[in-house]
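QA checklist item 7 of 12: single-chain prediction sanity check.
[x] sequence parsed
[x] length recorded as 347
[x] structure emitted
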Amino acid sequence: MGKKLIELKNISKSFGDLVVLDHFNFYINENEFITLLGPSGCGKTTCLRLIGGFETPDDGEIIFDGKVINDLEPNQREINTCFQKYALFPHLNVFDNIAFGLKLKKLPKTEIVDRVHQTLKLVKLDGFQDRHISTLSGGQQQRVAIARAIVNRPKVLLLDEPLGALDLKLRQEMQYELKEMQRTLGITFVYVTHDQEEALTMSDTIVIMNEGKILQIGTPEDIYNEPKNRFVANFIGESNIFEGIMIEDYLVKFVDREFKCVDKGFHLNEAVDVVIRPEDFDFVPPSKAKIKGIVDSLTFKGVHYEINVMVDGREYTIHTTKYREVGDRVGLSVEPESIHVMRRQRS
């Protein structure tokens, strides 16, 4: 990963009595694809707008390449933004939409033509330069919006839920294309979404946000496999979460049974939360299982079955390729490395 490019230090932002960001701190590396992920209203778009210069923080510093940029206008920052509403000029064709910013800079005409055509190839719209915006599909319009942003060669591209208006299949295609584009360009991408799949698919780093605070920062693998609290575990993927007791290092008790685990560093008999992902349960004969239950429901999901098992009045969710009948008595097992122990949140 490259050097630290953007840093938000102790940022606070309120709108009236509503605190949107509360003593917010994180940094973004050069050439990184970082995603701000959280539910609606958590402050992620406000954070993006602060970086872009469309809002001013009440407190704290926004540092870009070693310099405080709080007072710089958006057009004075080496940052471009691609919004969910593409804001394309309907009266201009594709070429003129993309070239708009370059013309404002009064670049030579030959350089403008070269850069627009290079960018069209990059976003897979080569040959579309004369097309009218109204004739383009949603996915093509989205590519034009991205092309208009990257043709200026910014150091940072901010993307505010740019795939939100696309259908599922096109959205999935564009996830991979955006990541490939970011690698090719070597531009830092700061991406905002509430879609966990998008975040896991594209990001180098994910920032989990809720109610104006950062709950966890890490790689997609870290966030998924080592959530720090119940909110993160529930927000990223599906989870079975149990209240438990950490008896000692590498031994945890939940659902009235003791299990070996790989976690340590807790107090003896500390109250904890235990997370087991649905894909980490295995079916075994009931006679060999600590956990026994009855199959309550089964749904075919294409790649796997989602099976809900009732155990002592509680529903467990299991993802498996193994078929089970509703009403089957089953045993469940889980490997120590698939049991993730978290400190209990204070209510």
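[x] summary fact logged: The chain has two domains: 4-230, 238-343.
[ ] second reviewer sign-off
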